[in-house]
Amino acid sequence: xxxxxxxxxxxxxxxxxxxxxxxxxxxxxxxxxxxxxxxxxxxxxxxxxxxxxxxxxxxxxxxxxxxxxxxxxxxxxxxxxxxxxxxxxxxxxxxxxxxxxxxxxxxxxxxxxxxxxxxxxxxxxxxxxxxxxxxxxxxxxxxxxxxxxxxxxxxxxxxxxxxxxxxxxxxxxxxxxxxxxxxxxxxxxxxxxxxxxxxxxxxxxxxxxxxxxxxxxxxxxxxxxxxxxxxxxxxxxxxxxxxxxxxxxxxxxxxxxxxxxxxxxxxxxxxxxxxxxxxxxxxxxxxxxxxxxxxxxxxxxxxxxxxxxxxxxxxxxxxxxxxxxxxxxxxx
Length: 332
Known about the structure:
Layout: E1 3-9, H1 13-23, E2 33-40, H2 46-56, E3 62-67, H3 72-82, E4 87-91, E5 95-97, H4 101-108, E6 114-118, E7 121-125, H5 131-134, E8 138-140, E9 143-146, E10 151-153, E11 159-161, E12 170-174, H6 175-181, H7 202-210, E13 214-217, E14 223-227, H8 234-256, H9 264-271, H10 273-280, H11 287-306, H12 308-314, H13 328-331
Parallel strand pairs: 1-2, 1-4, 2-3, 6-13, 7-14
Antiparallel strand pairs: 4-12, 5-14, 6-12, 8-9, 9-10, 11-13
């Protein structure tokens, strides 16, 4: 088994089946990879649909794993814990991979110095996007990106890139390296659990960059990422700015060991410029979006200050143990 494809999901059965059908058509030996669906407490038809898909034998090595609580990191960790391969290929439940996807990932890891692999994440728009969506793209020395929708377009040539530019929807990593980095931090929480949100795969990316580990972009390890019409509205960006503020607060508390008593923008500009730049790539224009970012930051700071158990949660060494969340299990 060369690769373990891990797909966390929650209440998106139709999109998940679309992704599974596409993976079944990838040009890579079926004996060389497995697909693990980590269902993080779905209440729709996900379990039944996976059972029916498994019966079709479209993917030879297919497993459905049920998790008893929501959270993107819960599904990611469950997949890693049961995976048979050393290379973990994390994919969102709304991607369509190129036919060369797995072959390119496998090829990239033939270099023993490579620990993280990504590709283009090109938009798969449900409807024609309004003009302002196209203006959300930003350029850098490697190509262009749109962090609001986890999109990457770095062209047709392979290159070494910062780990920050391997987004979670198409994120392949050595299992041993993920363990060494401490695993993922909480992410993808439902709205009633936003106070428990963390900084997701960002913590892993930062750890790899700090350690000087090698991340690469392979143009043939690319996917199309679903952008529904509901996300091409200012309301979606407003919410995204707010939750990125929560993530930034989580990172700040984790670094400092306590809530911040300063204005979040001043604090980030003064002490954590790199983190501010990172989050602003995902919560950029216009002024009202920055305002929502600040609101999310302050909401989380107030919650941590008010609840010692939340502070305990934020400062946990890691999140591999699903049952260790302080009071979280009782609240779900």
